[in-house]
Each structure stands twice: as C-alpha cells, then as structure tokens.
Amino acid sequence: MSRKFSSVSPVIWLLPGLLLSCTKEVEPLPDWSAGYPSAEEADTDTDTDTDTDTDLELTFKVSIPDDLVIYEHRFHEISDPLIPCEITPGAVGDASNLTCVFDAEELDLWAEGFAYSIFAPAEMCDYVAWQHYSYEAFEVGYGGTVVRYAVDSDGTITDIENSLNGEPYCEYDYRDAFYPSDGPNCCLGRYTVIAQLPDGVYVSSGQEWGGHAADCYGGAAFVDPEAIFNEADFPVAHLVYLDKAPYYHEFSFPSPQDHMLSSNVLLANNYLPADHGGFMPAGLAAAYANPLYVYECLDHADEVIARISLVVREWNERAEYLQGGDPDTTGLEDYWNEPLDDIHDWATGTPGTDTWIEIWE
Fold this sequence. Notes:
By secondary structure, the protein is mainly beta. It has 5 helices and 21 strands.
C-alpha cells in the first residue's frame, strides 16, 4: 500500500516504533523509591518555559508554556531537575533519548488536567511522531468455548460450564450488578451452547461473546481532543511530515473531573514497581497499553533521531512537593484525619500485579 504525504500535514499511521502490539516489550519506569531530589535540588520555579523564539529553534523539545498550565508545576529530565526536556541536533546515545517528568499536586491535576507543547527545530526531523499514554482499565479476555447447562423436567436449571441460570456467563463481561449499567463487555471469542433438556440435547454453535477490547481501555490517548481511531477503535500514532521544516504543536488534555472520574490515572502514568510486586501495573502491561507519552523525531527511513518520553506524576502532599520529597505519602492528615492520598493513582487504584483500575473513558 502506498502512502502519500503532504507538506507539514498530519498523517495517521501505526509506526513500527510506536505500534500497538501484543508482543511489545516496554521498559519499566525508574524505581523512584530509591530516593527523590533534595529540597536544594528541587526546581519549584513555576515559570518553566522562558525560552525565546531563538532558543526554540535550536532543540527538539517538550515544554510547558505558562499559558498552557495555570497551576504550579515542575517539568524536567526525570533524573535531574536541572536538565530541561530537550535534545540538541546531532545528539547520540542516551543524549538523544530522554525521559522527562511533569510534576503536579494531585488536586490541580484532577481539577484542571494539563497541557504542553512539542517543538522540532529546522533541519533536524523529516517526520515527527507521537503516541499518548493508555491502559487497560478492565481486564480483557476470552470466554469459554462451551456454555453447558441442564434443565430438569420440573424446570430446575443446573449450571455446568460457563453458565449462570442457564445464560452464557463470562468473567470478562462487566455488564452486571457489580458495575454501572453501561459497564464494558470485554469478553472475546466464540462459544457453543449445549443444553441438556428433558426432551433431548440442544446445541447452538458459533455464538459470539460480543466483547469489544477498545471499550475496556482508557487514558490520555482516548480523551485527546485530536485523537483519531483505527477500525478497532484504538487511538493510533500520529505522524507528521516535515521535510526538516520547523514544527510546533500544543496538546491539551481534559481533567479527570471533566470525565467524572475519581482517579488521576486517566492522565498520571507514574508508578512505583514496589507497589506492584516489582513490576508495572497490570493495566500498563496489557497488550495494547502504552505506558508512556512518546514523541519522536524520525528520518525518511523511520530511524529515530531523537525520542522524548513523558511521565506525569501527581503528588499527595504540598509540603513534599515543595521540598522535592516523596510524591506517594500515605496516612492521614493531622487534625482532619482525612487521607493524604485523596485521589487514586496507580498505587492505590491497582495495588499488586493482578488488579485493574476499572475506571475507563
């Protein structure tokens, strides 16, 4: 299939480097439990983007202009608060592959959402590409291949296999009393009904469980106002042809509050492996999840010139935020006896390795 690109126009395409694939291996995020920046190192300056137009022309960067995010925040390379999130043309190795962190207090992120921009300088990128963060909110799985039950002459139903009161039952279909009426059906595959009736055996093959995997996912990629979806209803990577022209683009994500959610997981992808048995949360390890916000500068042959990955981290206490301490404190507030961790993140929303946030949009 041929692809035709117009100058500086968006083309929607699943890139090999950003492809949604069930075989994709994702490197886990750093374990911040080993320590956090000291108060002296922490950058509490809210004026995070004071660059001039001349400066913008020099680097491939993700930045947070003050007019995009109105509340106090920090933004920098993840291991060093003094390093900005930008890559100089010609950089190689680690210098061309940055992971950056956006720090915000939990209520700010929940009530206001967040926004940022990317910039590619002239003469650096033939294309820019991006894929936003997403997760599996409800576990997706295949139902049983056989639904079997029996009906006695007095009408008594005996469930034998994948049956509930004589009706097909799949643990991945969440449209039941434990979820809202519009809960998703995440049960995939086909089944055959075998009913042992008083007058014989009834068989009906080729039945569909009817689940739709994309309905069971959530995250920034799904609520991005500019999102474009493929035939399976998953958001796809964006590819923009530049031919080395400069490029600037702003992203703005609605708040979890706007979507009536009780969790910051919609936007905040930060997690500690220690909270999940040494691994990533199950929802981020799922087949079609994207644990990071990723932005790439590519050449004509789809080789990576520069890559910036973004982590959004919410903080539970203002005092810890101001001193660059621990973003994940727990316990109760003095006097008020209310939780320090007021709004769910990955730690509280999906502890361990086999729990699911079960919040989707």
